Recover the amino acids of this structure.
């Protein structure tokens, strides 16, 4: 009987839990993805905690040193609300700069994977024109890019930004979500894959 009572108390607590919105006026955002629309919301469990690899807060530096807010001159740092807006903006491509295995393990819905090691070679996917010496990244066809990787200690997307700029991509068209997957998951936001 005590077990049944405890289960009912837990169920009642979960049912009466306060809703977890993205903002006070926004419970979710639906974004287009290659697999169809995905609704991004926060986990509706007021007792939820982050688990797994992204719960680890101490990683050896180097290689896992805290990244600057601005990885290269001209790049604009952004947060989650800006990222959510960019996911529905046809002029912005959200790019996961992590290696393929990280991307396959879970990503922000609607993001495409351009590993940091390939960033300078795939500017054509962002609207740049191939040239004999690389790419020409001028004109209205060039999309803005919102880059992210694993978290504030991950150097993959900052490296991608620097490589893109060196290859001719305009720094002012790059946005950097430094919190990355660790911040996204810490807030209980929807993740695809994994």
């Amino acid at each position: 009987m005590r077990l049944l009572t405890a289960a009912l108390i837990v169920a009642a607590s979960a049912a009466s839990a306060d809703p977890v919105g993205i903002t006070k006026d926004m419970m979710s955002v639906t974004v287009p993805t290659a697999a169809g629309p995905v609704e991004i919301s926060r986990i509706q469990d007021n007792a939820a905690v982050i688990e797994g690899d992204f719960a680890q807060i101490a990683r050896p530096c180097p290689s896992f040193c805290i990244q600057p807010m601005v990885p290269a001159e001209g790049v604009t740092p952004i947060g989650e609300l800006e990222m959510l807006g960019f996911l529905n903006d046809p002029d912005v491509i959200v790019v996961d700069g992590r290696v393929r295995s990280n991307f396959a393990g879970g990503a922000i819905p609607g993001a495409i994977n351009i590993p940091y090691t390939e960033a300078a070679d795939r500017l054509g996917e962002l609207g740049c024109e191939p040239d004999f010496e690389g790419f020409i990244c001028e004109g209205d066809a060039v999309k803005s890019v919102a880059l992210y990787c694993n978290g504030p200690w991950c150097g993959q997307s900052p490296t991608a930004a620097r490589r893109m700029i060196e290859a001719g991509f305009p720094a002012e068209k790059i946005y950097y979500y430094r919190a990355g997957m660790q911040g996204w998951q810490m807030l209980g936001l929807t993740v695809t894959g994994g």
